[in-house]
Each structure stands twice: as C-alpha cells, then as structure tokens.
C-alpha cells in the first residue's frame, strides 16, 4: 500500500511577499469594482476640487492679492492640488469604517490570506483614485490657463511631493477608520478636514492672517507641500522669512515621512487587534 504526501507550502520570505502582493491586488480589484457600481459618487469626488477652483478663483480671485504679482489662478491651482490630496482622506476613512462596521474586514481576516492585504489593497486603490483625481485637476488647470513654468523634471518632482502627501494621509485615514466606532463618528471627523485645509497657504498668503494664526498656517503640512509645488511649478507664491517657509521643500518631504512613521505602525497594530 502506497501513500502520497503533499508538498509542503513554500514559506520563504520571497514567497510570502509574492502572496501578499497577490492578495493585496485582489482586494484592490474589489475596491476598484465599487467605481463601476457607484460612478456618480466617484465622479463627484473627482470633480469637487475643480468646482472649488472655479468658485474661489472666479468669485473671490479678483479681490485677493497675489504675493509678488501674477494671476490668482496661478497661485490657487498648485494649492488646490495639495488640497485634493487632503480631500482623499475623507473617502479613505469612510471606506475603511464602512467595511469594519459591516463585518467585511473581519471576514477578510478569517480567510487564508495575507494579514496585510486588506489595508494594502485599500491603499493601492485609494492611491490610484488620487492619481486620477490629480490628473483631472491638472487638466482643469491647463484649461483655465495655468501652466507649469518650471520644466518637466520640476513638474514631475512636484507631482511626486503631492502623491507623497497623499500616501501619508492615506495611513492617517486608515487608522482613523479602524478606530472609529462607525460611519457616524467619521462624519464628525470629516468636519475637521475643512479647518485644516483653510488654515494653510492654499488660498491666501498666511502673512494676511493674524500673527499667531499665520504661524500655525505656515507649519501646516499642507502649506509646505503647496509652497514647495508652487516653487517647482514656478508659479506665484509667497516668500516669508521664517525657517519653515525658507525650507518648504524639505518640510514637504519630512512632514509626510513623519506622518507615515507614526500612522502606518498604528494602523498595522490596530488592524491586528480588530475583533480581539
């Protein structure tokens, strides 16, 4: 009588990494399928920043002075690129919270799949969403007469800084979504996105604000990215004398790295504790 033995599964680090990527892409495709099922919601998310540009640039632009001269659209649009990265935080929080509240996340965790695939898949899908949203914003800016005057390499560097900020905010959104008790809690957190966005250099020069408020605006991570991208695009900006303003490009890298260093481990720890 003969017996057959099944080969032992390959548990090498390279094999585990490959399975993690495959599982993550499966989750990504699941998240992307929601685009097809809810195209209206996705389209509104992409076009809302364009509406903001038209509203602020068209309605208020004539009353807002641009530091050093130049058109307000040229000042506003790079800031709105950064603001668009912040808006993505809301969709990440809501998606993660909804999956957790419906038990979808727990079902995924009970399956024979990589433990990191759920959050990695969500991250990939949201980054793809942000790339499309940023491309739409750039197209809208070009139609409105905005131009990247600094050259191709500088423009690509600016896009890289914007996506780095989005990647950092992605982990903030995942963590908040995991610790929230439900979508209702996320709604209250979403309200804070607006003060964070407006208390920055996205729309106006912080020098026009009261001293203490302007200082807070200058240290806003959104301001660092907005200021750095304006410089790389060679668009009108503001040139304050503080250290944070003079080193905006450096801080546009350090702020996201700090957020990633804090919230990525927190997200991983919280995900492992779900259902515990």
Automatic annotation (TrEMBL):
Principal subcellular localisation of the protein: membrane
Membrane association type: Multi-pass membrane protein
Domain ABC transmembrane type-2: 40-274
Localization, UniProt: Cell membrane; Membrane
Superkingdom, taxonomy of origin: Bacteria
Pfam family, one: ABC2_membrane
UniProt entry keywords in alphabetical sequence: Antibiotic resistance, Cell membrane, Membrane, Transmembrane, Transmembrane helix, Transport
TM region positions: 40-63, 75-96, 117-143, 155-178, 185-204, 243-266
InterPro entries referenced in this protein's UniProt entry, alphabetically: ABC2_TM, ABC2_TM_bact-type, ABC_2_transport, Nod_factor_ABC_transporter
Family of the protein in this entry: Belongs to the ABC-2 integral membrane protein family.
The protein, known as: Transport permease protein
Species the sequence originates in: Streptosporangium amethystogenes subsp. fukuiense
Organism classification: Bacteria, Bacillati, Actinomycetota, Actinomycetes, Streptosporangiales
């Amino acid at each position: 009588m003969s017996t057959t033995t099944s080969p032992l599964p390959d548990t090498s680090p390279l094999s585990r990494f490959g399975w993690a990527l495959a599982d993550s892409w499966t989750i990504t495709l699941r998240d992307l399928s929601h685009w097809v099922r809810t195209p209206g919601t996705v389209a509104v998310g992409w076009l809302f920043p364009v509406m903001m540009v038209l509203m602020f640039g068209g309605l208020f632009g004539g009353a807002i002075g641009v530091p050093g001269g130049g058109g307000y659209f040229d000042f506003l649009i790079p800031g709105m690129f950064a603001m668009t990265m912040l808006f993505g935080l809301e969709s990440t929080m809501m998606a993660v919270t909804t999956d957790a509240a419906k038990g979808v996340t727990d079902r995924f965790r009970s399956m024979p799949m990589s433990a990191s695939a759920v959050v990695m898949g969500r991250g990939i899908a949201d980054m793809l969403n942000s790339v499309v949203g940023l491309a739409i914003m750039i197209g809208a800016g070009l139609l409105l007469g905005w131009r990247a005057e600094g050259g191709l390499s500088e423009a690509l560097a600016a896009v890289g800084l914007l996506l780095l900020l989005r990647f950092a905010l992605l982990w903030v959104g995942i963590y908040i979504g995991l610790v929230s008790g439900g979508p209702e809690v996320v709604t209250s957190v979403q309200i804070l996105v607006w003060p964070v966005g407006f208390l920055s250099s996205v729309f106006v020069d912080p020098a026009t604000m009261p001293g203490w408020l302007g200082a807070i605006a200058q240290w806003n991570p959104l301001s660092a990215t907005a200021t750095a991208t304006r410089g790389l695009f060679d668009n009108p900006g503001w040139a304050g004398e503080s250290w944070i303003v003079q080193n905006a490009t450096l801080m546009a890298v350090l702020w996201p790295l700090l957020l990633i260093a804090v919230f990525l481990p927190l997200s991983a720890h919280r995900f492992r504790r779900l259902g515990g």
